[in-house]
Design a protein that fits this description.
Blueprint: H1 9-22, H2 34-39, H3 64-71, H4 84-91, H5 93-125, H6 134-140, E1 145-146, E2 158-159, H7 164-173, H8 177-192
Antiparallel strand pairs: 1-2
Helix pairs in contact: 3-4, 4-5, 5-8, 6-7
Membrane topology: Multi-pass membrane protein
GO cellular component, one term: plasma membrane
Protein name: Anoctamin
Length: about 190
């Protein structure tokens, strides 16, 4: 790996912040730094210096900010790999590591999300079949009367079939495949974390 020959944008920002923190602005020893000026309401806020415009240009040399805006910050590039080296040059190593970890984390969640979607789809498609969802079928076709849910006046007896919709919705999320999903997720977690 080659040694860096120039100064990166992140290093420029850190140098500027350090200079602004050490610069005196008054006679007293405590009057120094950008944070003190912000406390005294001289400045509302301070932002790091950027290398040029973020809009894409056809002429001249492109800067890291333009490259990141085009190939990383654009919604059209959601499926592409992250430009980690450009992120590191512009924001620094900590941010590049964070975004690399976040990308890895999201990729590792894709199989678990796919299994969850399969379980949900199975529950949705078999919700009305008596063979799979016999409990809801029994509830929906029942003639039994349930006791009131409260002890105050006005609470009436209800037929059990009034809970038919809730029973079907419960089956969509709590069907036999969710047990397999829980086991697969536990093994997946143990293997990869």
């Amino acid at each position: 790996m080659d040694r860096p020959t120039g100064i990166t944008s992140a290093e420029k920002i850190l140098i500027m912040v350090e200079l602004m923190n050490r610069t005196k602005f008054g006679q007293r020893p405590s009057e120094y730094g950008i944070y003190k000026l912000k406390q005294e309401k001289v400045f509302i806020d301070a932002f790091p210096v950027h290398d040029g415009e973020h809009k894409w240009t056809e002429t001249g040399r492109l800067n890291d900010r333009q490259l990141l805006a085009r190939y990383w910050g654009s919604t059209k590039c959601w499926y592409k790999c992250q430009p980690h080296h450009t992120i590191e040059r512009y924001f620094g190593t900590e941010y590049a590591f964070y975004f690399a970890w976040l990308g890895f984390y999201i990729k590792m969640l894709i199989p678990a999300a796919a299994l969850g979607l399969i379980c949900f789809t199975f529950g949705l498609s078999t919700c009305n079949y008596k063979y799979f969802n016999y409990r809801s079928h029994e509830i929906c076709n029942s003639d039994q009367i349930m006791c009131p849910k409260c002890h105050q006046e006005g609470c009436t007896f209800e037929p059990l079939r009034a809970s038919c919709g809730l029973s079907k919705m419960c089956y969509i999320f709590e069907n036999p495949t969710t047990i397999a999903l829980a086991i697969a997720t536990a093994f997946w977690c143990k293997l990869h974390w």
